[in-house]
Design brief:
By secondary structure, the chain is α+β, with helices and mostly antiparallel strands. The chain has helices spanning about 1-15, 15-40, 45-75, 90-105, 120-135, 140-160, 160-170, 185-195, 230-235; strands at about 110, 115, 175-180, 195-210, 210-225, 240-245. Helix content is about 60%, strand content about 20%.
């Protein structure tokens, strides 16, 4: 069984130095393509980070292949080693897959109920996968990596605009508004005129300051399809009797 494994895999794991260098360069270039979009959006992980992730994953793939090659030649030179050598060709790669999760988690920011960086973390996973694909070699893997980086990912990123338009049309917003209590009816009228369709409200607090009665309320509303959430925010925050407005 040991001999048959190497006989079937010999061409797979024995890679020339020039091809290994080619794989490293290709992995770095594709990682840069992914990172460029994140860099333009000023994300925590950008151009350099994605290049390093893809390059590092490719290095681990080549390390895996070179280790198998070294063990293969060692057993050819001394057949007595066969019964002591156990080869798991996916062990290093498996550690890369799990380890990249910690790097991705570092790009995720949680702030007052809002989570940012999920897309960047997911793209780091893709960059690592591209590096592993290229590092393992083969025309099929090269083609898959190229199509993923140059065709599929740009299409996915560009489709976010369509997804955002659809989600904004049906999304229910939750905002916290502190205002002068005497203007409550006026506030509801402004919400309606600016395109907000109020679903429900929750009273939070009421207090008095300098002789003025203030009220704090949570508003749940969707926005009409020909309006935008920013229009609602602008209409409310322009009122001098509105103390604060916060999207939650």
């Amino acid at each position: 069984m040991f001999e048959s494994f190497f006989d079937q895999s010999k061409l797979f794991f024995e890679v020339s130095y020039l091809e290994q260098i080619f794989r490293l360069v290709l992995a770095t270039v594709l990682g840069a393509i992914l990172g460029f979009e994140r860099e333009l959006k000023n994300k925590p992980a950008g151009f350099i980070t994605f290049m390093f992730v893809s390059l590092g994953a490719c290095l681990f793939s080549l390390l895996q292949l070179n280790l198998v090659s070294m063990l293969y030649h060692a057993t050819l030179e001394n057949s007595d080693f066969k019964e002591y050598i156990s080869i798991d060709t996916g062990r290093i790669i498996a550690q890369v897959v799990s380890g990249i999760g910690f790097l991705g988690a570092g790009t995720i920011i949680f702030n007052r109920g809002n989570v940012k960086g999920i897309t960047t973390a997911a793209m780091l996973w893709v960059a690592a996968a591209l590096g592993l694909l290229i590092g393992m070699g083969g025309i099929a893997n090269y083609l898959i990596a190229f199509v993923t980086a140059v065709v599929l990912l740009p299409l996915m990123l560009s489709s976010r605009r369509i997804g955002r338009k659809l989600s904004n049309r049906f999304k229910e917003h939750r905002v916290f508004i502190a205002f002068e209590e005497q203007h409550e009816l006026e506030l509801l009228a402004i919400l309606k005129d600016s395109g907000a369709i109020v679903k429900k409200t929750f009273f939070h607090n009421k207090y008095q300051s300098n002789g003025v009665h203030y009220k704090e309320v949570y508003f749940y509303f969707s926005v009409e399809k020909d309006k935008a959430f920013d229009d609602v925010v602008r209409a409310i925050t322009q009122q001098n009797w509105v103390l604060s407005m916060e999207d939650i």
